[in-house]
Amino acid sequence: MIAIMAAQSGDATNNHGLNLKKAQAICKLSKELKGSAMRAGRDSRSKITAILELEAVFAAMIPNATKGTADDDCADYDEVYQEANRTVTETIKKIPALAETAAATAAAAGRAAGVLDEFLAALAQGTGAGTTYCIQGSDTNAATQADLADCLNTDLKPQNMVQLKDTKVEAASQHEADLTKLAKALAAAGTVTSFAGSQATKGCGLVVGAADGIMVGQALSGSFAWAQGLIRFGAGNANGLTSTGVTADSHTTTAADANLHWASDPEKIPVIAEAIALAEGYKSIANSIAERPRNTIEKVKTCMKAKNKEIKREPIFLNVSHLNRELKKAVAERDKALSSQHANTTPKQQTNCSNKKETECGTAPGCGWRKAEGKCEAKDDGQGETNAATGTGDGAAGNTANTTASNSFVIKTSPLWLAVLLF
Fold first, then answer.
1. Helix (H, G, I), strand (E, B) or coil at 337
2. Terminal CA-to-CA distance of the chain, rounded, Å?
3. Residues near 61 by Cβ (< 8 Å), separated by ≥ 6?
4. Where is the composition biased (Low complexity) (predicted)?
5. What is this structure's pTM?
6. Residue 326 — φ and ψ, nearest 5°?
7. Per-domain boundaries in the chain
């Protein structure tokens, strides 16, 4: 709804420029927009860091590895494991959207603050002799830096506008501002008396569309807007104020309009509306994550550091990489044992006795000299096979070592160790 307010003729002390209350409302919104930009960037970085940290901590857990007690603040290890799994799965998917909306929010908020800053900087510098000015101060004179402290540092020069790195912005970033409420305050603060009086003859040419106002020696050929339509006026003398509804960039101002129009719903000005919408979008995603990752990390760490356990376990169960190393080591030992047994139990080739001379036959394993035949032959009493297998001569048959039993023991113990690891 368009609210039209009657033009007000100014009095002797308030007919030269923007009302201070209105200017301060603009500065307040600008500062909070900058704070919102900083907060979105910092908050998204914190949440993404927590999600990635939880993912790393979760990787060090093994389901059913241990169970803490109520005294450990870990009554159910398995439930904490499942909660960590759910939180990682659900929140890690939101990282791209969180980062994207945070960047967009910061950019839009910074852009909106810049538009307002440029408007304030131009008007703040508009001062003339005596009591002529574009922004009225706390008395009958022009506004000072102290009057506009949310916008300016030191003095009214544009290079001294409050920046993102300033402590004022840092303080603003510590809380969540209601940007819609702050934007609406631009219409509510000092609407009637702002720019009251005949501006063509009483002061600020920055809001005059007639000759020698914005243009030298001639009037505007169309309408003129400050801050994307926060103020809009035509070619006539801006000698009164009306409040005009804003829908996108649509205003009722015409080229020949003699009145100064101030937006009655500044929250609909495009640059401000975009910043508000993106900030709300980021807030929705951020709230869906909240402190879940950080809280889950603390639960996991509490359980993994619990001192009292219903089931005692070695630290191996709390570190997946260590478990894998031990498992590989056990498999290697088993393979080594199998290779050793194969080498020790493979029968040696039977000694060829037929080509042995009498002097050689007695010392050859498994061979014996047959006097009747006058030749060396393999013994047929079984002793030769034993000697050949053990590599000993006839005289050492009683010292045969039984390595088969010890090899069997090695083979059996490795799978047992492997079973313990996998338990």
1. helix
2. 74
3. 81, 84, 300, 304, 318
4. 386-402
5. 0.64
6. -65, -35
7. 20-288, 319-422
